[in-house]
């Protein structure tokens, strides 16, 4: 294993897109930010220097951070932010993981422009469990606002209303050619004919699930969230924010130009955002004048296409990569994922209410010092460990009948787990206020998606249909609107681990909680002490 060093200078940079210019927060002046490369087993030393006026914090999304929660990154959960003028070295080792992940800012809405790919190659001499590609390409999907992104969320928080949707989606930083300004075209991917490419596709958008397609080509999915899956062919890939998908593209069509699309998926009947972005796959030798073969993008509410995709995902579960899904469960939890209301006398709307979000009716309140510090040093008064295991008053979660009281409670409440205990969480979507999917992300461990269904979870019948053989293993999963997913994981990573909706707007509204995993008794079962340069609050 090697030690790999990276330096991330956080700097402002002027950027012009969609015919308008603004200053954006970037890493090393780039949008998207730099890709980082590693091999399984390597140690990463990534020095982040904050040259801007915002507080900063970076999360290595999907990296397990075994015993090194201090390097996980979510502000006020595992560290205090890096103040302007300060720096912090994220120091962690990548073990038992290989594939594509992403890094992103984990404070305010700064991840809009502070993100990039993490590419973890298998150990030397270990082949991929699929044919060796001719070449690999990263495709980062993002989202762009013409106005200042922090102003968008600040305004929404002050008014109590929903924030403005973005003006465009991007592929490797480029909005599609339709929004072409100042000669900026969409992203172009040039390929050789009759070859196989590995596409590392990442959804780094803030608030949108995206369908991904390439006209005229099927894609073979081989990996999601840096875990291998049973390969399957599809013409459409679905990624929620925070999810990654590796897929093989074989350039077996005639020499031409083919449209690539990233278009929103939203199960809501209301059209929230229709800004499809496009890029172009160009076979080397195709004439510049040749017309581009168009992709037929799915309708925004194409739930059947989304379901077909997610149902095709199965863990590889081979001899070399067996499924480690827990079969016995110590903690069986039911979490309702909901939007709700809080009183807001100062809010600029007639009801004097603000939209909030919650899990089991608890709207999470961010602490003033990092939870991991409070846990490690035994500082009282920062959090309680009484997060409810299930809703206090169950109701019909399908949204057929909205409960009368949609007011939530607030608190910094965590759920405590003994080291190595096994956990099942049924994430029950509620359709409260808006029927929307919620991509739920867990820090510190992958989980296995053992079941999924529509309507209210039935604790007697539904577990009989769980897949405990080859469930897909991932770190982010979309809880369907008006339905549920069941996930399982083993709490074998001591520390404090955030669980939240990866739609940034819902995180801002409080759709988050955290697990605290105690140390084990063995020699390698404790959280390591904090590094000396850990930022202070
Ligand atoms: Cu990618 Cu806590 O997030």
UniProtKB/TrEMBL annotation:
GO terms for biological process: lignin catabolic process. One of its GO terms (cellular component) is apoplast. Residues 10-123, 137-286, 387-520 form the Plastocyanin-like domain. It is an enzyme of class 1 (oxidoreductase). Its cofactor is Cu cation. Keywords: Apoplast, Copper, Glycoprotein, Lignin degradation, Metal-binding, Oxidoreductase, Repeat, Secreted, Signal. One of its GO terms (molecular function) is metal ion binding. It catalyses: 4 hydroquinone + O2 = 4 benzosemiquinone + 2 H2O. Pfam families: Cu-oxidase, Cu-oxidase_2, Cu-oxidase_3. The keyword Oxidoreductase applies. Its EC number is 1.10.3.2. Binds 4 Cu cations per monomer. SUPFAM superfamilies: Cupredoxins. It is found in: Secreted, Extracellular space, Apoplast. PANTHER family: LACCASE-16, MULTI-COPPER OXIDASE. Belongs to the multicopper oxidase family. Lignin degradation and detoxification of lignin-derived products. This is Laccase.
């Amino acid at each position: 294993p090697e030690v790999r060093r990276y330096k991330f200078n956080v700097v402002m940079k002027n950027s012009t897109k969609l015919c308008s210019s603004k200053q954006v927060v970037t890493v090393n002046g780039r949008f998207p930010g730099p890709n980082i490369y590693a091999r399984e087993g390597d140690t990463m030393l990534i020095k982040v220097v904050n040259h801007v006026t915002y507080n900063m914090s970076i999360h290595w999304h999907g990296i397990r951070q075994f015993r090194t929660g201090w390097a996980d990154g979510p502000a006020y959960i595992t560290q205090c932010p890096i103040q302007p003028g300060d720096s912090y070295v994220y120091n962690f080792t990548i073990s038992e993981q290989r594939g594509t992940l992403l890094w992103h800012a984990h404070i305010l809405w700064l991840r809009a422009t502070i993100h990039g790919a993490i590419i973890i190659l298998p150990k030397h001499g270990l082949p991929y469990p699929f044919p060796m590609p001719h070449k690999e390409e990263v495709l980062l999907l993002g989202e762009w606002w013409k106005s200042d992104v922090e102003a968008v969320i600040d305004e929404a928080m002050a008014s109590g209303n929903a924030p403005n949707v973005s003006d465009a989606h991007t592929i490797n930083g480029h909005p599609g050619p339709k929004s072409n300004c100042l000669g900026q075209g969409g992203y172009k991917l040039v390929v050789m004919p009759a070859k196989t490419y590995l596409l590392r596709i990442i959804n780094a958008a803030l608030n949108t699930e995206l369908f991904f397609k390439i006209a005229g080509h099927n894609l073979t999915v081989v990996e999601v969230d840096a875990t291998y899956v049973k390969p399957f062919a599809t013409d459409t890939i679905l990624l929620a924010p925070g999810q990654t998908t590796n897929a093989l593209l074989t350039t077996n069509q005639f020499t031409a130009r083919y449209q690539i699309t990233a278009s929103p998926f939203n199960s809501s009947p209301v059209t929230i955002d229709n800004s499809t972005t496009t890029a172009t796959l160009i076979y080397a030798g195709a004439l510049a004048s040749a017309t581009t073969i168009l992709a037929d993008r799915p309708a925004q509410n194409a739930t059947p296409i989304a379901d077909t995709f997610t149902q095709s995902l199965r863990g590889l579960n081979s001899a070399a990569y067996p499924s480690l899904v827990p079969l016995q469960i110590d903690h069986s939890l039911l979490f309702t994922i909901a939007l709700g209301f809080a009183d807001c006398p100062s809010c600029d709307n007639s009801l004097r209410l603000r939209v909030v979000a919650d899990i089991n009716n608890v709207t999470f309140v961010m602490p003033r010092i990092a939870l991991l510090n409070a846990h490690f040093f035994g500082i009282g008064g920062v959090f309680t460990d009484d997060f409810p295991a299930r809703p206090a008053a169950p109701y019909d979660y399908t949204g057929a009948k909205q409960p009368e009281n949609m007011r939530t409670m607030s608190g910094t409440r965590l759920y405590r787990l003994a080291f190595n205990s096994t956990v099942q969480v049924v994430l029950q979507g509620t359709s409260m206020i808006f029927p929307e999917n919620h991509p739920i992300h867990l820090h510190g461990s992958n989980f296995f998606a053992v079941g999924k269904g529509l309507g209210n979870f039935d604790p007697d019948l539904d577990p009989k249909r769980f897949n405990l053989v080859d469930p897909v293993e991932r770190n982010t999963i979309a809880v369907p609107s008006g339905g549920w997913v069941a996930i399982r994981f083993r709490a074998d990573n001591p520390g404090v681990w955030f669980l939240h909706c990866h739609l940034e707007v819902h995180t801002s509204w409080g759709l988050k909680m955290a697990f605290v995993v105690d140390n084990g008794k063995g020699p390698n079962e404790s959280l390591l002490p904090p590094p000396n340069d850990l930022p202070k609050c």
